[in-house]
Structures are given as structure tokens and as C-alpha cells.
Write a structure and sequence with these properties.
The chain is α+β, with helices and mostly antiparallel strands. It has 4 helices and 3 strands; from the N terminus they run αβαββαα. Strand 2 and strand 3 form a beta hairpin. The termini are far apart.
Length: 107
């Protein structure tokens, strides 16, 4: 399923509303419907959106050109969403970080 959000008023940008809205939307989509994957497209220059979507668990899968604009396609699978809800993705990230810190520190 494809989703899209827009925070139109600049006064609300960078306040976490997009991340929160997408999180609620993903929770609803994966609990109420049998979707296996949710994806979206965002303009390549929209750094705020990219950061927000990554925080929500989406990953970049490809670049797409439509109507003269460059987009990044991002997606999250049901399995990835379930792992995020269980906290496994966060645990894995912290393990990866601590492993790399250990390997880069002198013994």
C-alpha cells in the first residue's frame, strides 16, 4: 500500500508531527489490514521528510523520476514493522554501534 503525508504549515515543520503521524498510520495499516508492505515516495531534496521516514522505520529502496522530479522510494515490510514494535531493530542498532565502538578502540 502506498501512503503519503504532508505538513503544510511551516510553523509545524521539525516538531515531530510527521514522524508521529506516520507511526500512527503504520500501526493502523499493519494492525487493521493484511498489508505486507507499505511504501512512499519523497522528493530527494526533502531532508526533513527523509529523516522523519527513517525514524519511522522506512528504508530507501530506489530512486524514481516522475514528472521531471527526482524521488526516493522508501518502504517498510510487516516483518520490519513488527520488529520495530518489539524493539528488536533498536536493540540491533545499539549492538551494531557498540560492536563498532569496541572494534575501533585500542586494546
Amino acid at each position: 500500500a502506498e501512503v503519503g503525508i504532508m505538513i503544510g504549515a511551516k510553523g509545524y515543520w521539525s516538531q515531530g508531527y510527521g514522524t508521529e503521524a506516520l507511526g500512527v498510520l503504520l500501526d493502523h495499516m499493519f494492525t487493521a489490514y493484511p498489508f505486507n508492505r507499505v511504501y512512499l515516495h519523497t522528493l530527494t531534496w526533502n531532508r526533513r521528510a527523509l529523516i522523519s521516514f527513517r525514524k519511522s522505520g522506512l528504508r530507501e529502496v530506489s530512486q524514481v523520476r516522475r514528472s521531471g522530479n527526482d524521488f526516493i522510494k522508501m518502504e517498510i515490510s510487516r516483518d520490519e514493522w513488527e520488529a520495530l514494535r518489539r524493539g528488536e531493530a533498536e536493540d540491533q542498532t545499539s549492538m551494531d554501534t557498540s560492536s563498532s565502538e569496541k572494534s575501533s578502540s585500542p586494546s
